[in-house]
Structures are given as C-alpha cells and as structure tokens.
Amino acid sequence: MKKGLVLEGGALRGLFTVGILDVMMEHNITPGGFIGVSAGAAFGCNMKSRQPGRAIRYNTNYAKDWRYCSIRSYLKTGDLFGGEFDYHYLPAHLDIFDEEAFDNNPMEMYVVCTDVTTGKAVYKKLDKCSYDCYEWIRASASMPLASRIVKVDGYQLLDGGIADSIPLRYFQEIGYEKNIVILTQPDGYVKEKNKFLPLMKMQLHKYPHFIEAAANRHLMYNTETAYVKEQELLGNTLVIRPKEALPIGHISHDPEEMWRVYHIGRAAGKERLQDILRFMQE
Q: CA geometry: angle at 168 spanning 165 and 171, to 5°?
C-alpha cells in the first residue's frame, strides 16, 4: 500500500508545515511520496533532499534581503519573491540544496501548477535536480499579481493553488491509498472569493480560462476541504492542521514571526507524532 503526504500551500503559513516535516525527518518517517502546492512544493522539496532545518534557516536568514522578497525585487525582476535569487542562486551558493541526496532518494515528489492558458492543474513528477526542476517548483509557488508567468517544458504556469489547492484526490488516483494531509488553515476555515480578482482580470486578461479558475477558486477550495474531512472520517487520511489561524501573513520580513509559526508546526508534529507513526505502520 502506497502512503503519501499532501502539502497545502499558503506562502509563509507554510512554515507551519516545515515544522511538522522537520519533526518527521528527525524521526525517520518517510512516506513513499508527496505532492506539494506552492509553498508546500517550495518547502517540501527539503524532505526529499533530507535537510531538516534548511527551510526555516534560509527564510529567516534572508528575510530582510531585498533579493529574497521585496517591492524592489518586484520592480526589478517582476517577482515579489525573487525568482532567480530564491530558486537558483540561493540553493546553489548560499544555503546549499543537496541535489545528490534529492536525486538518490526514491521518495516520489510531485508539484502542482496552474496552466494559465487552460486554467487547469498540471501535475509534474520531479525525479532529478536540474534548472527546469527548480523552475517547476518556482512555478507552483508563483502567486498571481506578485509573479511573472513561468515558462517551462512548453507550459505557461502560475500558482498551483489556483487550480488544485489540496490535491488529495489526485494523489489517491495515482495510487496513494493512505495519505497524511498537512493544511495551513484551521478546521472550519472557509475561503471567500478573491478580493484581488479585478486586478487579476486587468493583468491577466489574455488568459480567460485562468481568470475563470481564479474566480471559482474559493468554491474549489471549500469542496476540497470537505473531501479531506470525508476521507479523514473514512480512516484513510490523517489530517494535521493548526488549531487556530496562524500569526503570519503571506509575506513577512520578521524572523521572530517566522520562528513562531515554525514552532507551532513543530509542536503540532510532536503532538501528533504517535498518530503519524501508527498511521505509517498500519
């Protein structure tokens, strides 16, 4: 039976997920594969490279570096979170991403992106590190309005969360029968229509299918959280979520705030550790 891990996005709310993943790595808990959306992909890749501590380290070390995330970066590059700096320069020169460990780890990694021309989800399996591998991860985390469209492998892509925010159903369809789902919103959270939709319509008017997906995202998201709860009740899904709204926004330049969210994740990971171990051993 294939056991997987499904990682929701949420920008810097994803540091909650990082805390849980670090606890899992420290206890040698290794699912057969995982699928990450947006921050779930950008931070989750450190699980395949077996580098606990790396994601919180580079986020806090470079929180105030304009190249990492800033209006200056947006004006100079078109990306609020610096595309070239964050996904290519930093992992190659500043906080080294262990490409050899990533390549040799048999754990499967999938990322979710949204094709701007169709408005549909694109699911990509990443086996080996390469420039394009990093670009797929960047695309998954490229938020509309704050990022350029990422062109890779013939696709034009943005944030995977627009088309499939919690890809549990997809992971089940490709054979992962039991899954741990890590969410970054508390139980009972209901997503509302995107208030920035008028700006998206202006900036991305050439991509009507993407605009339609963005307009309906709240409906898709709320349907998916209901499905997650249904699967949790059936016993084939273990859900870990924060007990209350996380004290951080999509963007933060405050290392203390980042550490706070990370430690909330670690506490959740430790609290659910025995549940995770039982679930993985069943």
A: 120
Mean pLDDT of 225-245: 97
Sign of the CA dihedral with 51 first, then 250, 163, and 1 last: positive
**Closest by Cα among 176, 137, 175 to 157:** 137
Q: Tokens 């290794």, residue?
A: 30
User: CA dist 191 to 140, 156, 223, Å?
Assistant: 20, 26, 10
Question: Residue 89's CB: how many other CB atoms inside 10 A?
Answer: 12
Residue 282 has pLDDT above 90, yes or no: no
Inter-residue contact 75 to 69 (CB < 8 Å): no
* Chain mean pLDDT for the chain: 97
**What would the pLDDT profile of 95-143 be if each residue is shown by its tens digit?**
999 999 999 999 999 999 999 999 999 999 999 999 999 999 999 999 9
pLDDT at 260: 98
Bridge-partner residues for 206, per DSSP? none
In one-letter notation, the amino acid at residue 67 is: R
- Count other C-beta atoms under 10 Å from residue 200's C-beta: 18
Rounded CA separation 257/228 (Å): 29
Q: What are phi and psi of 165, to 5 degrees?
A: -75, -35
- 3-state DSSP assignment of residue 279: helix
Nearest Cα to 159, choosing from 242, 81, 252, 247? 81
